[in-house]
Amino acid sequence: TYSKAKVRYLPIDTPSEVNKWLDYANPSLAVFVRYDIWPNHLNALRKRGIPSVVMAMSAPKTPWYLHRTLPFIRKVYKEGIHTWGVISEQDAANMSLAGIHSKVLGNPKYDYAASLAGKASIEKFAAWKKSQQKPVLLIGSAHLEDCKALNGLDLSGFSTWVVPHEIDEGEAMKTALSQFTEDDAANSITDKPKATSLLMIPEFGVLSRLYSLADGVVIGGGYGKATHNVLEATVQGKVAASGPNWQKIAENHELVELGYLIPAQNESSYRQYLQRIGTSEFTAKGNEAQQWVLSQKGASEKILNVLEQAVQL
Known about the structure:
2 domains; elongated; seven-stranded parallel β-sheet; Rossmann fold; four-stranded parallel β-sheet; 13 helices
């Protein structure tokens, strides 16, 4: 977290509560991220002459609040936003169809991912990696359904590392991976580094620095609403696999198209992915993926320029 930031919860979106909040905060600029744009906040900001900017917005279709069948709501949003910052040209085209001029500023997630490149792995986990006699398959931000799906595969050729998305679900995930016995499993908190077929990692804040140690990666969440952050793995030179629900994350579309994310529709898809791990083709594809992510950075600088221009109004 940015050290100079003050984190506050926004009040409920009613005119009276919004006005109390603005009296307290006295902002010079309001930034709305992606799609979280509240109409009463927006209207009150406009009335006080405080510019509002939207950034990192993905618009695969016309947002509900810009439909012409809702003229009052549409007017609030259209008049209240100083700059609509979208991720891609396609988003801009869709906004144009809705009668809104927008700017393509790019996806700041790539800038975040690029900042992770080259960061040293955590010493403890580097020792775990060194102790393994088999390639490491890392299941990052794992959900229970991810583990159930993977248990249908023969994972005996890997040291499988599981980082739960919800720490308290770790034991259920371990149970779901029933092909492993109690003697096969280790825990990163209670055990010292050793060769293991299953390593449970119930720890916060370590995942992004584990991807560089992995030989293959499965991103969790693909059996729920959508995958978690794939770019953290991609920027470490990893081609990742996931469950079938990846479409809601904007950057996943490019990653799938380029072959850097492999959505698995069934066990056969996962099996084909596992067979690629360790091959020269797989390694080369991962290096290509890393360079591609690094080439996409630059959105943050564009966004900062827009924010500076908005404040100077």
